[in-house]
Amino acid sequence: MNKLKLSIAGSGLGDFVYQNVDFSAATFQKYLSVVSGDGGLEPGKLVFTQELEKYSGKSFKEILKDIVGDRSSDTFNVGGPALVSMINASQLLHDADVEVSFYGARGNDDKGKAITNLLHKLPVDLTHYSVLDGETPFTDVLSDPHYEGGKGERTFVNNIGCAGQFDSSYLDEHFWSSDIIVFGATALVPRLHQELTSLLSKAKRRAAFTVVHTVFDFLNEKRSSKEAWPLGETLESLPLIDLLIMDYVEAQRISGQNNFADICRYYKQNGCNALCITNGAKPTYLYSSGKLFEAVEMPLPICDWISEDFAEHPEKKGDTTGCGDNFAGAVIASIVKQLANGTRPLSLPKAAILGTAAGGFACYSIGGTYYEKQRGEKAAKILEMAQRLAAQHQLDFQ
Question: Could you state, in chain order, the average pLDDT of each consecutive group of 10 residues for the chain (398 residues)?
């Protein structure tokens, strides 16, 4: 079989991570949202910098100082769901004959140069990482590791920067000739997000395997906290997506449904081919119609021993930033390997087991991107965790 091509388009940015932010403190609480989408902070969700400034009547510099004091961020890391998932997929595919490419945008500023310097340490093809006028997108990540009884949570304040200029004109023939095409967190790349249905349609016309993984859609939440968020033209998009990866809030808001049974029914009845819904420390919901993946509907538990490990060895604990992105990247990596091996039908549980292990592994470091000491190091550790998870729940992971 010829070398497979995997191309991912969407959000890539810099993450400034602030550890040990107490979400129960008065200095954080006074910036909390009253109504979702009003511009205030919400644990586990994202708000744009400019909207938080309007909501509070303060500059973000003042807000940040109020919450974290005079300290600098604990880390500056590569972030953005599309870019982080691509990095993880590339790390897990170190021994596979596959070409992995990222399509996104950065500015020609200090942040953009700093991200590029970090990316040179990673297995990343920067050929299609466009340099545009304007500021490099970045996110200030406020992390409370003690939130919800020690499970941890983050709040994201995003500056969209030059990602607001990125659209389908930057997707070239190399992108469209890919075997697997992924659209990651396009709600942070608004022009691309608006085109999603036509982009998916073109990918399917080119016989690509399509994956979409989502992010909290603040722009549409601001427009209405009651109306469903669009995925392009949602009802037209769903049948064009071979695998849709979301967290619970995103699945709820895109479907416009409130309870879990209705959420699942919405996607099944509207042509969704396969679906993963992560839910923090709760099991991941897996569904496949049987079209490309073997038909399945089941919950997949998380790696529950990680909390016990952190309780015994608190020095090992990082934060939960990038857990979902690493989950998506590992699921994509498993799909690539299954396609390369001629596996038919594909196994969604097998892909999600690897994804769950990768999400768990991300909790051991601060930020979503892991810098390997040598190629294959991360893959070996995640594979060991995946095998343990599969054995614990008597799942097939061969």
Answer: 89 93 95 94 93 95 95 92 96 95 96 94 92 95 87 90 96 98 97 98 98 95 93 97 97 96 97 96 96 97 90 86 94 97 94 97 90 95 96 90
Q: What are phi and psi of 359, to 5 degrees?
A: -65, -40
**Are 212 and 231 in contact, with CB atoms under 8 Å apart?**
yes
What does the radius of gyration of the chain's CA atoms come to, in whole angstroms?
20
Q: Which residues pair with 276 in a beta bridge?
A: 245, 286
Give just the sign of the alpha carbon dihedral 208, 266, 261, 34: positive
Report yes or no: 114 and 355 within 8 Å, Cβ to Cβ. no
Residue 172 is encoded by which pair of tokens?
Answer: 């070239």
Q: What is the DSSP string of 321-376?
A: TTHHHHHHHHHHHHHHHHHHTT-SSB-HHHHHHHHHHHHHHHTTSSSS----SSTT
